[in-house]
TrEMBL record:
Gene Ontology molecular function terms on file: ATP binding
Record keywords: ATP-binding, Nucleotide-binding, Transport
InterPro entries, A to Z: AAA+_ATPase, ABC_transporter-like_ATP-bd, ABC_transporter_ATP-bind, P-loop_NTPase
Protein name, UniProt field: Taurine ABC transporter ATP-binding protein
Span of domain ABC transporter: 4-233
């Protein structure tokens, strides 16, 4: 049974004359890792806002567990590129902000807090205010903050694009560890083809104006170290994906 389903979704911003995305279909299973890739301005963030329930489609349906998405919910967590952390709160306070606001007792989320602090390497920083941390550490806080709600669907909107290569690779590994640990589904948005190939079991390519689905690919190179050389099949796959991203329609 699918966790999330988009059926023929289109959207136009109320203040805009142009449709941003059109006829988008997508099915996401439980414990699946889907990457949405495409050039800038094709409606990737718009799509994510629709799935999150911040906006409602002009046409079509967004369904989670067969129910129509009516508005934002802790069940669909988002990590933004700019993170939107509270700089003066500590690492632990930032991470626990959501469950605290939901009125949950500390005893219900503290075991997971400790686990997330450990998994993300933030244990030693837990009482430090967030403004003191490096960009990479802040991104870890943002990820842990989204995970503490245990959302069945976690979404990342170009979350790692501002990081240096080394830190980005660390975050990729961390994300995969959390995904295995929490057994959730993840949708990660990126404009980076290599990030898409490393993180996506399936890769949804969006392009054009309005943005439409150019392809949905099963990715044989998911979670593989391509630095050791994967040969001609890999190069062909990457070229094919690049062509789909760059194609104009
Ligand atoms: P992406 O995330 O792929 O870069 P976006 O979803 O941000 O693309 O934007 C898709 C299209 O919608 C773009 O043409 C953009 O100009 C337009 N758009 C985005 N946000 C707004 C807005 N708040 N009002 C009007 N148009 C918008
Ligand atoms: Mg965007």
């Amino acid at each position: 049974m699918s966790l999330l389903e988009l059926r023929d979704v289109s959207y136009r911003y109320p203040e805009s004359q142009e449709v941003s995305i059109e006829h988008v279909d997508l099915t996401v299973d439980a414990h699946a890792l889907t990457v949405i890739v495409g050039p800038s301005g094709v409606g990737k963030s718009t799509l994510l806002n629709l799935i999150a329930g911040y906006t409602t489609p002009l046409n079509g349906q967004v369904l989670m567990n067969q129910q129509r998405v009516q508005g934002p919910s802790w069940q669909r967590g988002i990590v933004f590129q700019d993170m939107a952390l509270y700089p003066w709160l500590t690492v632990a306070q930032n991470i626990c902000f959501g469950p605290k606001m939901r009125g949950l007792a500390a005893t219900t989320y503290e075991p997971l807090l400790t686990e997330l602090l450990t998994e993300t390497g933030l244990l030693a920083f837990q009482d430090q205010p967030v403004y003191e941390l490096s960009g990479g550490l802040k991104q870890r806080v943002a990820l842990a903050r989204a995970c503490i709600n245990q959302p069945p669907l976690l979404m990342l909107d170009e979350s790692f694009s501002a990081l240096d290569n080394y830190t980005r690779n660390e975050m990729h590994q961390l994300l995969l560890n959390l995904w295995r640990r929490l057994e959730n589904s993840i949708i990660a948005i990126t404009h980076d083809i290599d990030e898409a190939i490393f993180l996506g079991q399936r890769i949804l390519v969006i392009n054009g104006k309005p943005g439409t689905v150019a392809a949905m690919l099963d990715n044989p190179y998911f979670n593989q170290d391509v630095t050791t050389g994967l040969g001609t099949d890999y190069v062909a796959f990457r070229q094919k994906l690049l062509g789909l991203i760059e194609q104009t329609n």
